[in-house]
Amino acid sequence: MAGLFHLLRNLTGRPYFRCVTGGFSMAQQWWSEDVTIESRIVGRYVTINSTERAAEYMLDEWPAEQRGEAFDAAKQALIDAHEGTVSVDYALRAFVAAAEGAEIFFYKSPR
């Protein structure tokens, strides 16, 4: 997972290579709500239920033309949650705010 957040930190919109770290596994930071959000494939939705899954979505699925200040704030919130400096719920709220700002369709459902 550390490689994933390193990529998120250095996200530039250019193609990237996903790092796979072996031998180390950290606990997932599960969210209190699931966020079901549209993907790049028309008619396909994915469920985001953790900080790590949100980071993957931002790297792989987020439309490049819809990256702005809210995207950057959400990206930083995910990194900060991963590092333990903000709450997981804060990262969830930042991710949802970025999706709203980018007009990406989503809905939340409590667990």
Automatic annotation (TrEMBL):
Pfam family, one: DUF982
Matches recorded under InterPro entries: DUF982
Domain of life: Bacteria
Name of the molecule in the record: DUF982 domain-containing protein
Organism annotation: Rhizobium jaguaris
